[in-house]
Design a protein that fits this description.
The protein is mostly helical. The protein folds into three domains: 3-190, no CATH class; 213-293, no CATH class; 297-360, no CATH class. It is 63% helix and 5% strand. Strands 4-3-5 form a three-stranded antiparallel beta sheet. Strands 1-2 form a two-stranded antiparallel ribbon. β1 and β2 (180-182) form a beta hairpin. α4 (153-168) packs antiparallel against α8.
Length: 365
């Protein structure tokens, strides 16, 4: 299993729990406890998968950065120490020449940070899932007993519990401004950011062991404004190069979960006086508030963001509908997307049914 497969399992887990809630008779205390036990086992499997995947993926990302740096050094005119041989085999065996203290400590730190973040998020999501389901069960049973809610107990309980879970049952992190981040989103941010960090750090440590302390930030043109403004900035990894910014002044990639930035060696011994002065001038004239992208680059980025918003909305909307309608909802997210984008009659019926049931339960959609 790799990191993307792990993230896909986490993304699918919410729908699996919704299926379980709809299949179980939550009006029966024994079945409700059994459902919670199964959910708990799901979280345990995810936790075990993190232990299996993250260390190996961190090593792979870090040494991939080393190999990319070796090629970049060679292209820049240097033959790197330890040559151009791969630093890690396809089976994950690290070549002895690269199993140095610097590399091993860097990998250990990144792996530990990623594992701690993910495991804390899983613990929080597990706790919130239990609390959310138990609180919803207690509340709806109380309302049924008091006659506030009419209808078949099992159906009413299932709808209320599943809907409550779909909304925020897998919350794994709450931001300082009160945003509740679900486990799938938080995991994706954590894993992708840390693996990219491993990759870039591997490159930078490879440059340093070859006595190259300056790197040029490379960003793709269709990225965000924040990343684009640092494209081409030459940074000192050691802070010992006059006229060039430190990594504190010009932060290196990644700057967000899907950042595609990287670094390339700036071998000052092979640069002309003009190239060196141009690099310094670029930093002197750096404007952190200016968007340097072309209109076409901004348009391409905004279009991709628009598609991402649609994709994320569809995931959330499907979970909401699945939570309330259960087996009456489309079987898969893909089926839901197709009927939504085609605006089929069945989709219109689905929306109407969802609103009707939500209103009957005393809430608006």
């Amino acid at each position: 299993m790799n990191s993307e497969q792990l993230l896909e399992i986490i993304r699918a887990m919410k729908l699996e729990i919704l299926e379980l809630l709809h299949d179980a008779n939550l009006a029966n205390d024994r079945e409700a406890r059994r459902a919670l036990q199964i959910i708990d086992s799901m979280y345990s499997r995810i936790d075990a998968a993190v232990e299996e995947v993250i260390p190996a993926e961190s090593v792979k990302a870090y040494f991939s950065g080393i190999d990319e740096a070796s090629k970049a050094l060679n292209s820049a005119g240097l033959y790197p120490i330890s040559g151009l041989a791969a630093s890690i085999s396809s089976s994950g065996q690290i070549a002895s020449a690269f199993a140095t203290r610097v590399h091993m400590e860097a990998i250990a730190e990144i792996t530990d940070n990623t594992m701690l973040d993910l495991k804390a998020a899983i613990r929080t999501a597990r706790r919130n899932t239990h609390g959310n389901i138990e609180n919803a069960l207690s509340a709806v049973k109380n309302e049924l007993q008091r006659g506030i809610i009419q209808g078949k107990p099992r159906r009413v309980i299932t709808q209320r519990v599943a809907e409550s879970f779909a909304k925020e049952g897998m919350t794994s992190f709450i931001t300082v401004d009160g945003r509740k981040l679900p486990l799938d989103f938080y995991s994706e941010v954590t894993v992708r950011t840390n693996l990219k960090t491993a990759n870039v750090q591997g490159s930078n440590n490879r440059y340093l062991e070859n006595n190259v302390g300056l790197v040029e930030i490379f960003e793709r043109g269709d990225g965000c404004a924040e990343c684009a403004k640092y494209n081409g900035i030459v940074v000192s990894l050691t802070g010992e190069h006059e006229g060039f910014p430190t990594t504190d002044e010009a932060p290196l990639p990644p700057r967000h979960a899907n950042c595609r930035g990287s670094t390339r060696p700036f071998v000052i011994e092979y640069k002309s006086d003009k190239e060196i002065e141009d690099a310094k001038s670029r930093w002197r004239n750096f404007n952190p508030s200016k968007d340097i992208r072309t209109p076409s680059q901004r348009k391409a980025y905004e279009e991709q963001q628009r598609l991402n918003r649609i994709n994320n909305y569809e995931k959330k909307r499907y979970a909401d509908i699945k939570g309330l309608l259960g087996d009456d909802a489309p079987k898969t997210l893909g089926a839901f997307r197709r009927m939504k984008r085609q605006n089929t009659d069945r989709f219109q019926e689905l929306q109407s049914e969802y609103r009707s049931i939500a209103q009957q339960a005393g809430r608006s959609s």
